[in-house]
Amino acid sequence: MEKFLQVAPHSVALVLLQLGREDEPDPPSSSSSPPKLQQRVTGYEVFANFKAVNMTHFWNKDLTLALTEIFFLGWIDEHVLLIQGQEVHLQVLRNGWTRRTLKAPQGYDIQFIGG
């Protein structure tokens, strides 16, 4: 029996994997070049990108409507996007994930959807 934790009512969590992320530090070099700074992305930026890349589903009117009706709820540990909306719209997102029509935000891959 699977257990899950409901973080907020009428919400889903998209667990994301950042693509091309380099967690290893750069090897020391003989030149004294300044270290590269990683640009941090806010959760709202990830959410906005998620909506933008999925709004191209003009043939799927249910998904397009759902995307206009969902809201950014939070960003946990830089890889979990919390989304809130009416249950009917959240179910459309879940169905899109099941049918592999839901696209991940740019630079990420959707690992799974919970909630």
UniProtKB/TrEMBL annotation:
InterPro entries: STOX1/2. One of its GO terms (cellular component) is nucleus. GO terms for biological process: regulation of transcription by RNA polymerase II. One of its GO terms (molecular function) is RNA polymerase II transcription regulatory region sequence-specific DNA binding. This is Storkhead-box protein 1. It comes from Dissostichus eleginoides.
